[in-house]
Amino acid sequence: MSCEGWKNVTLDDICLNITDGDDVITIKEAITMAASTSIVQVRMNTEMKKATEHMLKSMGLNMSTVVNLLCKQILVQKKLPFEVIAEPNAVTEKALDDIEHDIGLSKVYKDTDEMFKDLGA
Length: 121
Description:
Blueprint: E1 15-17, E2 24-26, H1 27-35, H2 46-58, H3 63-77, H4 90-100, H5 112-119
Antiparallel strand pairs: 1-2
């Protein structure tokens, strides 16, 4: 194979098509990107990891891509890019049920005189 014609070619001249999209970068950019990445380790439940990876694969994504997307959105929005909703535990469920059924609630006072009377003041 002859390399003639390649004498004046630099890493900036050779392009790569990344993923299946239209993103085109030079080899120099790819090397710079690879050299400037960091490894992030996360501990999580094994079953959750497997289920998440399976779901991401069905979307054409992987865990690394999603973590990078998340971090980019945090930087852009300056907050978590989604609402965090905690599932109530048994104690919280009981408290919510008690409130719904007016169990264990404080007495509502019409005025402070009535409240102080109940307090024995």
